[in-house]
Specification:
By secondary structure, the protein is of the alpha/beta class. It has helices at residues 70-79, 98-111, 134-139, 157-168, 193-198, 205-222, 234-245, 256-260, 282-294, 309-312, 329-338, 345-360; strands at 3-11, 16-22, 25-30, 38-42, 47-50, 52-57, 82-87, 115-118, 146-147, 173-176, 189-190, 202-203, 226-228, 250-254, 299-300, 377-387, 406-416, 419-423, 426-427. The protein has 2 domains: 3-47 and 373-427, Roll (Urease, subunit C, domain 1); 51-360, Metal-dependent hydrolases (TIM Barrel, Alpha-Beta Barrel). The structure holds zinc ion.
């Protein structure tokens, strides 16, 4: 593999520097580095970040290849600046055995657009009744460390306790989709003023918050780690803040769409805004931004949830829940967190690379941009502004809530261990 010199890049948003990649490794970071024998990429003041890591991606393979495959999903990831994604377990069949997680892991290895780390199901078939083979999945070639029934809540407290006890033995983590099932039966959107006006079934904040409260107490009781997926309410933030102040081992994520969009959009009845957990209120959005800035919420995770046209282009009540997110995540974070002054680029690197890699134990990812580290990098033109055009997405699905919306920033280059996966905005 040849040498690449990235010239004049603002590393983590700092002063422009040169970064020399040699093979799969960062060889040198400094001023006026020699370009001898190297292919030169003129960064011209663009921001260089460590490759992004997504702890929450739905790649849909096996079973729903009409929505996404490991190949199309990882191409979408590379387009969005990601070098590693964690693939959720709610596939068909469910990733609840060593065999299925190894299959997903191998597909990721073969395609090579980014590393794919499978997430194992907590319970057999995501049915919430019997613990899946957590140990066998951990010991498989896929080396699973994150377990989740995402899409469904592990609502049985005894099962949750056993899962926390089990993963503690090998330092794993349970990622909870916090949704009390009885409180959300028939729910179509956030419960509040808008749901009352529209007459749609409401999804109360307490359905999320009550599970988070229970699970941080369980994690404390067991002395294990729990991760809370897609926080969406101000109350959830308060519970996580309290738990962290008590030293409980809890981490939390927020999605880009919960940092930007509110339930007012449901008035359009456009199912592109239908998502689980639902879009909440302005007050919640502001609380989530503040919590991401102050570290109460550890990371941004996309919850990239591709659906084919026919599952979204129908009446609100019948539409599938979820949005694609890999190709717009960084732009939404720039809009909501950087351009608002809440986070600088070093903070973005922390929330979208360093910390998610640490929570998921993604070896070689989320590392500093310095000599000797793996060359997992992404280059961002932060001055760019443009309208989102889903026709250009690498994802197989188009269910973005941002179609036609102007967003800042564009990923121009991504390198996975020194190999370019995206050059000048085009996949290799
Ligand atoms: Zn979920």
């Amino acid at each position: 593999m040849s040498k690449i010199l990235i010239r004049g890049a603002k590393v983590l948003g700092g002063a422009p520097q040169d970064v020399l990649i040699d093979g799969g490794t960062i060889a040198e970071v400094g001023e006026d580095l020699s370009a001898e024998g190297a292919q030169v990429v003129e960064a011209d003041g663009k921001v260089l970040l460590p490759g992004l890591v997504d702890l929450h991606t739905h790649l849909r393979e096996p079973g729903r290849e009409d929505s996404e495959t490991v190949l199309t999903g990882t191409r979408a990831a590379a387009s969005g600046g990601y070098t590693a994604v964690f693939a959720m377990a709610n596939t068909f069949p469910v990733a609840d055995t060593a065999g299925v997680v190894e299959q997903v892991w191998r597909l990721g290895q073969e395609h090579g657009y980014c590393d794919v780390q499978p997430i194992g199901a907590v319970t057999v078939g995501l049915e919430g009744k019997k613990l899946a083979e957590l140990g066998a999945m951990h010991e498989s070639a896929a080396g699973v460390t994150v377990f989740s029934d995402d899409g469904k809540c592990v609502d049985d407290a005894v099962i949750m306790r056993r899962a926390l006890e089990y993963v503690k033995a090998f330092g794993g983590v349970v990622a909870q989709h916090a949704q009390e099932p009885r409180l959300t039966e028939g729910a179509q959107m956030n419960e509040g003023v808008v749901s009352a006006e529209l007459g749609l079934g409401g999804w109360p904040a307490v359905a999320e918050e009550s599970i988070i409260a229970r699970d941080v107490l369980l994690a404390d009781h067991v002395g294990s780690r729990v991760h809370i997926c897609h926080l969406s309410t101000a109350g959830s933030v308060e519970i996580v803040r309290w738990a962290k102040s008590r030293g409980i081992q809890v981490t939390a994520e927020v999605t880009p769409h919960h940092l930007l969009l509110t339930d007012e959009l449901v008035r359009t009845y456009n199912p592109v805004y239908k998502v689980n957990p639902p879009l909440r209120t302005e007050r919640d959005v502001l609380a989530l931004r503040e919590a991401l800035a102050d570290g109460t919420i550890d990371i941004v995770a996309t919850d990239h949830a591709p659906h084919p046209h026919e599952d979204k282009d129908c009446e609100w009540a019948a539409a599938a829940m979820g949005m694609v997110g890999l190709e717009t995540a960084l732009s939404v974070v720039q809009e909501t967190m950087v351009d608002t002054g809440l986070l600088d680029w070093a903070g973005v690197a922390d929330r979208m690379s360093f910390k998610p890699a640490r929570i998921g134990q993604a070896t070689g990812h989320g590392r500093p941009v310095s000599a000797g580290e793996p060359a997992n990098l992404t280059l961002v033109d932060t001055e760019y502004r443009g309208q989102v055009d889903p026709a250009g997405f690498a994802s197989r699905s188009r269910n973005t809530p941002y179609q036609g919306r102007e967003l800042p920033g564009r990923v121009t280059h991504t390198w996975l261990r020194g190999k370019a996966t995206l050059v000048d905005g085009k996949l290799t």
